[in-house]
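Hi,

I'm pasting everything inline rather than attaching a file, because the server keeps stripping attachments. The sequence lines come first, and each chain or strand is labelled.
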Amino acid sequence: MRGRSMAESSIAKVTRTRRQRPLRVLIAKPGLDGHDRGAKVLARALRDAGMEVIYTGLFQTPEMIARAAADEDVDVVGLSILSGAHNQLFPKIVEELRRAGLDDVLVVAGGIIPKEDIPQLQALGIAAVFGPGTPLDTIVAYIREHAPAGERRS
Amino acid sequence: MSCLLDRVRAGDRRALARLLTHIENRTPLGIEAERLLFRAGGRSHVVGVTGPPGVGKSTLVAALIREARRLDQTVAVLAVDPTSPLTGGAVMGDRIRMLHVTADAGVFVRSLTSRGRGAGLAPALCGMVHVLEAFGFDFIVVETVGTGQGDFEIAQLSDTTVLLLMPGLGDEVQMLKAGSLETADILVVNKADAPGASQLLRDLRSMQRRAPGDLNPVPLHATIAMTGEGVAGLLASIVGHRQELERTGQWAERRRRRLLAEVRYLLLEALEERVDHALAALSEETQIALGDRRLDPRSLVDCLLGQCLTNLPADAD
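And the predicted assembly:
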């Protein structure tokens, strides 16, 4: 009995890992903000959680972020910003994402974002804002739970 | 389905990106699309760019894109990273920073990882290339780490294979000499401003001279991808390689070989699926017999092999 269940689970595991579609996440650094330690740490945590992470590098315009998200067909866009320009940049990014036809991607943000700004960002369509000190597991779990599920629409 | 295909045929970039996802994930829709779009392809020049990690492949590809755009040629890039999606992602930064391609509809970059995909990567890559061909890109660049680190040979998938080397690789180059040096159509010494570059170029030239039976040594280029130095010449050499093959009639033959390699990958992929099904369906008795050494693995394989080749797999879920 034990032999069988072990064999089955290992075979099932092999097959499943081969066929399961990993989540694709774009980590972007919008605007004039050269600090990407946080973005890289998060990129690595998401990678270790089995996601495919595409990091854009620094100094991205909203158009660049939308273009990268569209071409890479990501499920999630993570915006990291420490410059304080989130109220200026995020609306433009959300608009560009919509213009590129990405209305169902999950958009999350992190960085130095004052609490009082969060409601208006959420109203824009930024699903969650993770401040400094958020455990990586919390972010991983949030993305897993809220990313668009399954083979998405054609 | 037909909607997505129609949009791709009409040149909708977003639909192209989505279809590539379907193909990468081997969904029924993706597989059907490969079938339907295949005939629309065949005109693009598929260029494989390979070399050890850190040699500057992404930066060189970015520089090549810039040169190709100067000639008004469109470029799609498939960047494969077998080790870390994090470093693979650096392509994006390079591309976007160096080229300002945001408004440029003539460039399309897609990153993919080979991690955990095993034999699935090569057929997925082939399918993605077909779709990009159908979309009408002039160049399709497949960027990958080479030399025994992947589970396929990039040379089998491309019309022109470019191998990048750089000074200071030491033993790594020694290793490369045996393998991918022989399958490369064009050799590039990148970081040509770094110490040891001229020595490496000399070594490669003398090695080419000593190669037995090789009457036409492959072109050897020195580049500095960061500044773009030597890249125009490299692109000219890539184009020249195609022209030469077309002139001598080897182009069609190479294309045929490429498609045959794809057929092989697809067969292996289909078989792998059946093998998985056969193994999942193994009875408990058989497994116990195997464990008790009443049944030997070889005999079990003989028995399963027949099953894999005759039985259709249970409906793919």
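Chain B touches chain A through 46 residues (CB under 8 Å).

If the labels don't parse on your end, tell me and I'll reformat.
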